[in-house]
Amino acid sequence: MPIRINGTEADLPADARVSLLDLLRETLNLHGTKKGCNQGACGACTVLVDGERIVSCLALAIQYDGRDITTIEGLAGEHGLHPLQQAFIDHDGFQCGYCTPGQICSAIGMASELKRGVPSHVTGDLTTGQIALTREELAERMSGNLCRCGAHNGIVDAITEVYAKDLA
């Protein structure tokens, strides 16, 4: 089965050592997903696989045969930007913008985890059935995505605007 990226089928690389990140950037010319540390520590390369967030620099493309990959380019729909993309603009959730695609994909994956009741290290009460998106919970869940410019407050405000009402 081919890999599906942003709704379009693509061939897997012949070389089984090619990372998903390199397939996206070098073969498919999807440059929104960034290569930061290339060690899985910064989150700049975060994409969604079947709705779950992964760091694509540590993933071999061949592992995702038959799976659905969504990059930052695949989030906007026919009616415009994804609500989180718009919130990042509205709240100045970026300065240089390098981490922004990974931050947005990670936040979308994080919201899905919260809705499914997946706890984090700081989740207090697991018996309520739903986890509130507190600042502490948000900071813990987004800790794998680094912003070195100082846009942290705008990032938190954007994510909170879009997801706090749905998850509280």
Automatic annotation (TrEMBL):
Domain named 2Fe-2S ferredoxin-type: residues: 1-75
Gene Ontology terms for molecular function: 2 iron, 2 sulfur cluster binding; metal ion binding; oxidoreductase activity, acting on the aldehyde or oxo group of donors
Listed Gene3D superfamilies: 3.10.20.30, [2Fe-2S]-binding domain (1.10.150.120)
Domain of life: Bacteria
InterPro entries reported in the protein's UniProt record: 2Fe-2S-bd, 2Fe-2S-bd_dom_sf, 2Fe-2S_ferredoxin-like_sf, 2Fe-2S_ferredoxin-type, 2Fe2S_fd_BS, Aldehyde_Oxdr_Iron-Sulfur, Beta-grasp_dom_sf
PROSITE patterns recorded: 2FE2S_FER_1, 2FE2S_FER_2
Keyword annotations: 2Fe-2S, Iron, Iron-sulfur, Metal-binding, Oxidoreductase
Metal-binding in keyword set: yes
The protein, known as: Aerobic-type carbon monoxide dehydrogenase, small subunit CoxS/CutS-like protein
Protein species of origin: Microvirga lotononidis
Taxonomic lineage: Bacteria, Pseudomonadati, Pseudomonadota, Alphaproteobacteria, Hyphomicrobiales
